[in-house]
């Protein structure tokens, strides 16, 4: 797979949050650097985050802190659901979301619909610490396809849908719109849940306002999920949406009870207290989304 394009040659990696603000850390050895059919893919070693990869210059995941993102994106909806059996992940080619959902002993089927086979290939080769063998679990079905078309054509219901996507631009942009959210709502019905990452309320306020507005036009319950993600530059927003199920109805003890009953272990971040904390909304975010 290795093709030396020398696209990544800087000593420092910069993740720009806005035209004026960025997050910088030192790069290390470049392990892979090539262009797929859809995007430019880079894999590198770093002292701060272990192995990381970028798509078209944007950081996606790292060995050292992927759990800030993957645990909250997946366990908040999965624990809120009383008995999740089926899940659809749109994107998620690194396998991190699949790994978290496959922890559930009642989970019978997880479909990962990833646009770019190149992302799955680099995950298999370089990011075993992230997916931990999820791609080889017999309950997992890998589909290389456009998630927009897959969802539009799908007739099978799911308990959970997780949008583990790049930012809303390029190929991913249509997957952040009201029409696509409506198709997701069709698949999860009244009792399922949708989870997705949104952006930084501090540095992407208009994006956050717009996406929550689009979600509220489709779902009766839309909860902001607010967590720190160092690799993305700090304070970050996700969303958990449903017609009937509300993650805020679960207190810390109920979350802990469900984690224990379902045998969910080995988590670095998520627990009963952080479930409630992630759903607490600061005043400036309330004002932004009002």
TrEMBL record:
GO terms assigned for molecular function: spermidine synthase activity
Domain PABS: 10-243
Pathway stated in the Swiss-Prot or TrEMBL entry: Amine and polyamine biosynthesis; spermidine biosynthesis; spermidine from putrescine: step 1/1
Lineage: Bacteria, Pseudomonadati, Pseudomonadota, Gammaproteobacteria, Aeromonadales
Binding-site residues for S-methyl-5'-thioadenosine, renumbered to this chain: 39, 114, 146-147
Keyword Transit peptide: no
Reactions catalysed, as given in the entry: S-adenosyl 3-(methylsulfanyl)propylamine + putrescine = S-methyl-5'-thioadenosine + spermidine + H(+)
Active site: 164
Gene that encodes it: speE
Subunit structure: Homodimer or homotetramer.
HAMAP family assigned: Spermidine_synth
Pfam families reported in the protein's UniProt record: Spermine_synt_N, Spermine_synth
E.C. numbers: 2.5.1.16
Purpose of the protein: Catalyzes the irreversible transfer of a propylamine group from the amino donor S-adenosylmethioninamine (decarboxy-AdoMet) to putrescine (1,4-diaminobutane) to yield spermidine.
Keyword Transferase: yes
Gene3D superfamilies xrefs: Spermidine synthase, tetramerisation domain, Vaccinia Virus protein VP39
Annotated keywords: Polyamine biosynthesis, Spermidine biosynthesis, Transferase
Binding site for spermidine: 70, 94
Protein name: Polyamine aminopropyltransferase
Family: Belongs to the spermidine/spermine synthase family.
GO biological process: spermidine biosynthetic process
